[in-house]
Amino acid sequence: MRTFDELLADGRLESDVPLGPLSTYRRGGPARWFLRAESTDDLRIVVPDEVAVLVLGRGSNMVVASRGFDGLVVHLLPTTEGLTIDGVDVDAPGGCPLPLLARRTASEGIGGFAWYVGIPGSVGGAVRMNAGCHGSDTSDVLVEATVWHLRTGAEGRRGPAELDLSYRHSNLTDDELVLAASFRGVPSTPADEEAAMREVTRWRRETQPGGTFNAGSVFKNPPGDAAGRIIDSLGLKGTSVGGARVSPRHANFIEAEDDATPEDVHALMSLVRDEVARRGGVELTPEIRFVGFA
Question: For a Cys-Cys bond, which of 177, 183, 232, 271 suits 251, CB 3.0-4.6 Å?
Answer without folding.
Answer: 232
